[in-house]
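Lab notebook, page 48
Experiment: co-folding of the full assembly
Goal: obtain a model of how the components sit together before planning crosslinking
Operator: M.T.
Materials (sequences as entered):
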Amino acid sequence: MYTQALNEKAPSRDANAPPEDAKMLARFQAVVDAEDKIEPNDWMPPSYRRTLQRQISQHAHSEVIGMQPEGNWLTRAPSLKRKATLLAKIQDEAGHGLYLYSAAETLGMSREEYYEQLLSGRAKYSSIFNYPTLTWADMGVIGWLVDGAAIMNQIPLCRCSYGPYARAMIRICKEESFHQRQGYEIMVTLSRGSPAQKAMAQEALNRFWWPVLMMFGPSDKESMHSADSTKWKIKRFSNDELRQKFIDATIPQGQHLGLTFPDPNLKFNDATGHWDYGEIDWSEFRRVLAGDGPCNRQRMKARQAAEANGAWVREAARAHAEKRRQRSAAAKIAAE
Ligand code: FAQ
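Observation: model returned without errors.
Model output:
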């Protein structure tokens, strides 16, 4: 919708693009610094546009691929109520993907191009969705921790300088809060259940804890986009700051469940008022990003199959739209 309204050329991906105009740049930064929003038709530096295209589309891809790990448990949910709730949550994630693709389209690139980047493996999606969901407790852990981490990262994005992204995030965050609570409620039920259920909850926490911490991205010193994104008020907190906030908020929740965290170095630091934690295995993070996580191939294969299987629907919709267009054109001629 917005794409057609853009009165500016699509960003050049050419390394020889003309240098950004200093006056325009100063005006742009002043708007950002004043906490006003940048809107689709406003001038923006090509690098700001590219950063948003990258981040928003990768966020959208994450929501869409993120349906797969939970989809694995739809047919095996332990009750009708649990199944209905899980189904609704997964549908919310599809909806988040759609809002985010719409926001990304306002930056002058079509949804089809973004899909193509995902399907060809050129675009990333969140590392966390490359881990398998082995037990029902994983549904609890995903809601509690994966959605919990997503909220921690996404609440500040509601104040992002780019209007369409910031506005999309408001509704997404409300829904993520519900997701987090339903996940935690599963964890409460399992932790207060039989010894086998509690052990299942503990085992799921053990498997997901470190990959969840990786969701916040590389450490600040390794984060190549942070400086620009902070200057442009896309990012309000650094990767490490958000990771620490998440850990500080989550440890008491785990303690309330009577569960332990798989980190021998986890210790409350009286001096800083924060939890100290052990070293993240960044080699695992890099491996997953490079396509070699436990489920990368399976996730991409499922997504590519869904795209191929849906081709006839898109074709039929296009043919139907064309038929309607011809019919209404013929009716107009007849009326003249
Ligand atoms: N996984 O310089 P930085 C959800 C990449 S939604 C994969 O620090 P930046 C909902 C990064 O893209 C979860 N790649 O980058 C849900 C960059 O690569 P590039 C998704 C990662 O952008 C719940 C490179 O590393 N959320 O969970 C990851 O400043 C349950 C360098 O990193 C969002 O996308 C990673 N974990 O900061 C759904 C939120 N971390 O593009 C279903 C929006 C980093 O140059 C079930 N995104 N990379 O090739 C953001 O806030 C940021 O993009 C960060 C990364 C914080 C993820």
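Interpretation: Residues 163-191 form the longest helix (29 residues).
Next step: discuss with group before ordering constructs.
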